[in-house]
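Quick one from the shared queue. A colleague (R.T.) flagged IclR family transcriptional regulator as missing a structural entry in our internal table.

Convert sequence to structure tokens.
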Amino acid sequence: MAKSVTSRALALLGAFDAEHRGLRLSDLARRSGTPLATAHRLVAELTRWGALAREPNGEYVIGRRIWQLGLLAPVQSELRTAAAPFLHDLYAATLATVHLAVRDDLEVLYIDRLSGHDSVPVISKVGSRLPLHPTGVGKVLLAYAPEDVRTRALGRLTRVTAYTVTQPARLLEQLRRVRAEGYATTGEEMSLGACSVAVPVRNGDDVVAALGMVVPDLRRQLPRMVSALRVAAHGIGRTLASAQWKRGLAPR
């Protein structure tokens, strides 16, 4: 079946990711599986509309129009707005890198981040995606995910560092402890020299996000960090619930 114009345009936009933020026309065509002549025509249209922008070096990047539309998504606007003051409080209290993330199928989608002062290697960026199993926020989200999601994730346990947990039984035990203790930790599983701790963010009974911090060492002050994260996560959840009541969305 021939691809529609819409599917080809979406494929071109989907060619961009965290590792490919700028692409030349030939790379766009190759990564999207679009004939070069078709890519040339569609890229020109997308650029005129503002979905793409052309840099002086000839590369195309995501345009401001897409960024403006992205800000309208509920996961961006409502959750980020509710979480912002609590993220800043966490950062001020700890000076650690603070993350707010949601699950996008089998990946962590980072929707906000405040960078810490410590020289800790942090590879996540706002809008970037990482695997669930080697990240603190990912383990929280995986622990509270539907059973079929965990099953699929357990079949894709790739090794990122020498410390990444890739044994299904061991990861399942960690997820059980997350649900029992209410927080997750990692030790250099995503980046050497970086450890993380994370807690769930709830809206009512539903876990809607994960809140985490990245630090060089978890052996010091872990209880204090967990406590600070829980206070912030509770505040975010309370703000979300309050916003829903005001819009009349909460059950009566």
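The CA atoms of residues 197 and 225 lie 8 Å apart.
The mean pLDDT is 89.
Added to the table.
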